[in-house]
Design goal:
The structure is a single chain. By secondary structure, the protein is α/β, with parallel strands linked by helices. The chain is built from 17 helices and 12 strands. It folds into 3 domains: about 1-65, DNA polymerase, domain 1 (Orthogonal Bundle); about 110-315, 3-Layer(aba) Sandwich (Rossmann fold); about 325-379, Orthogonal Bundle (Arc Repressor Mutant, subunit A), CATH 1.10.10.10. It has helices at about 5-15, 20-30, 35-40, 45-50, 50-60, 70-75, 125-140, 155-165, 190-200, 215-225, 240-250, 265-275, 285-290, 305-315, 325-335, 340-350, 350-365, and strands spanning about 80-85, 100-105, 115-120, 145-150, 175, 200-205, 230-235, 255-260, 280, 340, 370, 375-379. Helix 12 links the parallel strand 8 and strand 9 (about 280). Helix 10 (about 215-225) crosses helix 11 (about 240-250). The two termini are about 50 Å apart. InterPro entries: DprA, DprA_WH, DrpA_SLOG, RuvA_2-like, WH-like_DNA-bd_sf. Belongs to the DprA/Smf family.
Amino acid sequence: MPLAADELEDWLRLTSVPGLGAERQRSLLAAFGLPKHIFAAGRSSLAGVVGGKLADALLAPPEGDRVAPALAWAAEPGSHVLTLADEAYPRSLLEIPDPPVMLFVKGDPALLQHPGLAVVGARSATAQGMANAEAFSLDLAARGLTIVSGLAAGIDAAAHRGALAAGPAAGRTIAVIGTGIDRIYPARNAALAREIAACGAIVSEFPLGTPPLQHNFPRRNRIIAGLAQGVLVIEAALNSGSLITARLATECGREVFAIPGSIHSPLARGCHRLIRDGAKLVETAEDIVEELGARPGWSPPSSAAVEASSRRADAPSQTRLPIDDEAARMLAAVGHDPVDLDTLSVRCGLTVDALYAILLPLELDGHLTRLPGGRFQRA
């Protein structure tokens, strides 16, 4: 049931007090109950919980009108505000050490209670990595899991697209963002965000208008991990934020999965570290289904549904023209790892000019992807 305007105003006022972080907000709620009781308490009572300076800030008249934009936003169709006292607040987030006091949700808040899998990875992902993210997300969404990710470029966006491709009956996806709910970052994902809001949900704990501040993105990762039963990492460097999500998932008892890659690829090293540290090595969606299906809260679908999902996942994402024997031999020489022209020249015994004459049509027809540094990889 939506909050009354005066109740919502009290929650918004509590979370907008300067210097009063989520931990102290939760301490006040534990001590006094609802925000209206906090603001009705005397200074000495408040100071006993948060100190005199913050007690004065709580009781002072708000500087400017910080809550009016949020109240107007909450009145829009499809806009919801969930608080720790709300029955619709996702139970899974209560299991993490630092649950957000308030969530802004655009779309369907009921999805936040649905069994989910987080799919995360590199922003500068390879074509194969994004293809993997789309295929796994489509398959697992069709099997009944909500795909949770962060709406970033690369793997995140591919995961959302894959989930949406499962169709209106199954294409559930949640985007947890590191900005205010009224701002989309990166801007090129604005159309994708609109589609997610229409078919799934966009979630933020940050006040409206919050810009894309660097330190907010690691914070939102705990919500991604907390909303899901497990985290699948697809391509991650050793300094990737995806490893933070995986660590947070482990700390709150979630499963961690990782797809291995080439030993020569920097984007595989994070996944390989996770596997060495105990993450489950994943080759197919069935590897994830087997693990999560044994946990309470989600039952894998029937074999008929799995078969239908597999047919969709195996469908090619684009129509590719047939290739001749020479092109087939070239693809075999490329292999499944990124390769540079000098290496390919040695493998094929061809000059660089002769290679380009074969590689360019393969690239234009979607069989190859050109990577930074003049390398090529099979699509």
